[in-house]
Amino acid sequence: MGVNTFDEAGSSTFRPASRLATIGVSEILKITGLATELKRQGRDVIILGTGEPDFDTPEHVKDAAKCAMDAGSTKYTVLDGSPELKGAIRAKFKRDNGLEFAQDEITVSAGAKQVIFNAMMATLEAGDEVIIPAPYWVSYADIVLVMGGKPVFVPCRESNGFRLTAEALAKAINPRTRWVLLNSPSNPSGAAYAEADYRPILDLLICHPHVWLMVDDIYEHITYDNFRFVTPAAIEPSLRDRTLTINGVSKAYAMTGWRIGYAGGPSGLVRAMAVVQSQSTSCPSSISQAAAIAALNGTADIVKQRCRSFQGRRDLVVGALNRIEGITCRKPEGAFYTFASCAALIGRAMPDGERVQNDTTFAEYLLRSVGVAVVPGSAFGLAPYFRISYATSEAELREACTRIALATSRLS
Predict the structure, then answer these.
(1) Which among 60, 61, 302, 357 is least surrounded, fewest beta carbons within 10 Å?
(2) Using 50, 70 and 90 to split pLDDT, how confident is the model at 51?
């Protein structure tokens, strides 16, 4: 029997597992939760923290889910994805990326986050290192930590477009390095890697055969200004057998709640990830899998149309932020985030006399004073910046930028 702990009154108290000591709830979720509670209390709050398209799931995708339910496709499927969905994913990789995968080299999970979770659990030993360029999506580091691994952060400066350089990567690699994790286009910076950006990094990895490459391509179809998306395994075939290429339907097809992520990689790794999944969620939702098939096999017209809308919103936000004294904002190549610098505002006084100490206090000031919820760059491992998700209406974005300008003008 387990050992209970008791407080002085003799009642049992909860004792969390020690592995949770180094991680916490996502800063994005905390900020969004606080902003949502303020809205519930009647405050006029604009939430720009959540990375979720405001568009609805396309009708043909919803229709496919309804048909699946009517046909009785409501049972368990194959553990890591139905044959039909794996076939659609294989066709997508070949069509969009020039990558050919066998059926046993494809895995499907309840979201791209679970794909990453499965891969880390299947490969990391205690103390193994995962190199993560900063700024980074907040969950990367915590997933590594909960597996007993060690995240190694490599700062990527705005002067290089928030992209990792081969020189910086070379300094971080050592015998304990297990993975390098790349995300393009990036959450939170919107930075994307062209083939020329990837080439020196891939050349370096060729020289380190013990290091595997994990690539998060979830924003693949949201790029701007004729940017040409590429994925590393297509650029350097010699790395294919130690590369996991991750994607999903949540962002491009506005299917965040359907929870379908997938990946292509070496069959041995895919089998090990299936073992992990067998003891957690088992198969993804059968209904969601049917919907994902329709999304992947359907026309790309609606995705391109929505991408043009996102580009207009990007230009609106970047232009508005750069007109605010004390804020500068680089124009991102993709995703639906801006990562703006508030360095010039650090040290200024707020109306109550308190100082803006860092990007976190600046984000708190915006929420408290003008009701705009943004995420501080420190949550993503690089300060002093703040992230705005422009996956919301142009009207809200205009109002939010007006409020940010007003709050900033009150600093002295």
Answers:
(1) 357
(2) confident
